[in-house]
């Protein structure tokens, strides 16, 4: 494979491309590199390659002419990749795709970026190696070169070395161990010393699943999973059913259409459906908060019928879901109950159909790994200001940029729980 590298600092690549496997790959003729410096195509005596941006602003922008001349002079450019933080995410699947090419050109930008008209002159593919800003595209280019090159036949020596690794099967890699058997009281897992290769293979697969669920759950959506994998994940989910997330459906204080604080009545469908969603996603409890005595009695009658009465016999699944429901007078009662159960005061997180929010769904999911959180859902026209003042954060609306955002509270509850705790996201 031929790599064409366009960089203002070609010396950046001298050492990385001349050591270890990369050097062996070059010696074996598996990879070859051509370095192109746009300064060599600059037409003034100062070898100028950048200028001030139109419209003003800080920094400089790489000029078109040196880059255009450099690219047009290449005898074999192949696919042209521009290193850019706003590009297509670089993944193992993309690495496999690129490894089938005969030639690739990597353009390493510098300064504030490259004149955008370059995209109209050449079939550029913008590629990003992560959500961060680097001094230039050289580091990103190195990552792509190494990731793609090691997939070339013969590059790794042992072909299985290139496949039995993180992302190769859509999962993160399992942990590795070597001698000594014990070090400072830490022993190699017994199963790896058992000699049972079937059990070892399953252990490694399970550990890969564990790591992926914990660190990169979104990868599971596209991973190649067997029925045995799914059963393990279901068992793991049952073990993790006591999640740190709790939910309260607030009936007071909430807002009327006139933005006045008031208390509203319970809705049978809300309680049933949100209880079913809470049970599906393994919540610690679902609280229904109302200070009205007649509504508290109504809730007690409903729960008695479905959890302990005839309803539990007719529909055991509904009984299981409604067993999560706890009646409380105020949100603070739910906070106190969670603190008793977990030994920690929960973070109080509000939901709303308006505003930008102060906490993302992923951020809340990550918080739940360390501490409990109580999610508040408002009835009527939303949570009153005195409740919002008690909150530690607010999630963004489900349709933050949509023109219509008037879901029922039970629909909003289901969507919100899936965004926080959904298995693949």
Commentary on this structure:
By secondary structure, this protein is an alpha/beta fold. It has three domains: about 1-160, SPOUT methyltransferase, trefoil knot domain (Alpha/beta knot), CATH 3.40.1280.10; about 180-240, tRNA(m1g37)methyltransferase, domain 2 (Trp Operon Repressor, Chain A, Orthogonal Bundle); about 245-420, SPOUT methyltransferase, trefoil knot domain (Alpha/beta knot, 3-Layer(aba) Sandwich), CATH 3.40.1280.10. The protein is about 35% helix and about 15% strand. The chain is built from 15 helices and 17 strands. It has helices at about 20-25, 65-70, 90-100, 120, 140-150, 195-215, 225-240, 270-280, 295-310, 310-315, 315-320, 330-340, 360-365, 385-390, 410-420; strands at about 1-5, 30-35, 50, 60, 80-90, 105, 125-130, 180-185, 185, 245-250, 255, 260, 285-290, 325-330, 345-350, 375-380, 395. The strands form five sheets. The protein has a six-stranded parallel β-sheet, sandwiched between helices. The chain has a five-stranded parallel β-sheet with strand order 2-1-6-5-7, sandwiched between helices. Strands 3-4 form a two-stranded antiparallel ribbon. β15, α13 and β16 form a beta-alpha-beta unit. α8 (about 270-280) packs parallel to α15 and α13 (about 360-365) crosses α15. The protein is globular and about 85 Å long.
């Amino acid at each position: 494979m031929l790599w064409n590298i366009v960089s203002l600092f070609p010396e950046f690549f001298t050492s990385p491309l001349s050591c270890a496997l990369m050097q062996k790959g070059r010696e074996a003729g598996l990879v070859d590199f051509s370095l192109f410096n746009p300064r060599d195509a600059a037409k003034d005596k100062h070898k100028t390659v950048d200028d001030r941006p139109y419209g003003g602003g800080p920094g400089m922008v790489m000029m078109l002419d040196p880059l255009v001349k450099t690219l047009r002079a290449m005898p074999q450019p192949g696919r042209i990749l521009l290193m850019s933080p706003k590009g297509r995410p670089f993944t193992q699947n993309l690495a496999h795709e690129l490894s089938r090419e005969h030639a690739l050109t990597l353009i390493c930008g510098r300064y504030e970026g490259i004149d955008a008209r370059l995209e109209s002159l050449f079939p550029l593919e913008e590629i990003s190696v992560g959500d961060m800003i680097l001094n230039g595209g050289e580091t990103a280019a190195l990552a792509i070169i190494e990731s793609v090159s090691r997939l070339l036949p013969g590059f790794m020596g042992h072909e299985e070395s290139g496949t039995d690794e993180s992302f190769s099967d859509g999962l993160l890699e399992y942990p590795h161990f070597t001698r000594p058997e014990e070090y400072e009281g830490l022993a190699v897992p017994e199963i790896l010393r058992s000699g049972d290769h079937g059990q070892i293979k399953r252990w490694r697969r399970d550990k890969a699943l564990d790591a992926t669920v914990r660190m990169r759950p979104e990868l599971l959506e596209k991973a190649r999973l067997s029925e045995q994998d799914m059963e393990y994940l279901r068992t793991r989910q049952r073990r993790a059913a006591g999640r740190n997330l709790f939910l309260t459906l607030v009936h007071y204080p909430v807002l009327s259409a006139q933005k006045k604080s008031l208390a509203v009545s319970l809705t049978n469908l809300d309680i049933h459906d949100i209880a079913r969603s809470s049970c599906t996603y393994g919540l610690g409890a679902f609280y229904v908060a109302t200070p009205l005595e007649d509504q508290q009695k109504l809730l007690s009658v409903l729960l008695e019928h479905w959890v302990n009465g005839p309803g539990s016999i007719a529909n055991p699944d509904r009984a299981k879901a409604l067993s999560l429901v706890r009646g409380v007078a105020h949100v603070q009662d739910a906070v106190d109950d969670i603190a008793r159960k977990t030994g920690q005061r929960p973070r109080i997180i509000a939901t709303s159909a308006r505003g930008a929010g102060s906490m993302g769904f992923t951020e809340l999911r990550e918080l739940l790994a360390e501490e409990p959180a109580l999610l508040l859902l408002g009835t009527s026209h939303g949570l009153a200001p005195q409740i919002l003042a008690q909150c530690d954060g607010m999630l963004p609306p489900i349709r933050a940029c949509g023109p219509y955002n008037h879901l029922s509270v039970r629909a909003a509850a289901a969507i919100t729980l899936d965004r926080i705790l959904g298995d693949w996201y």
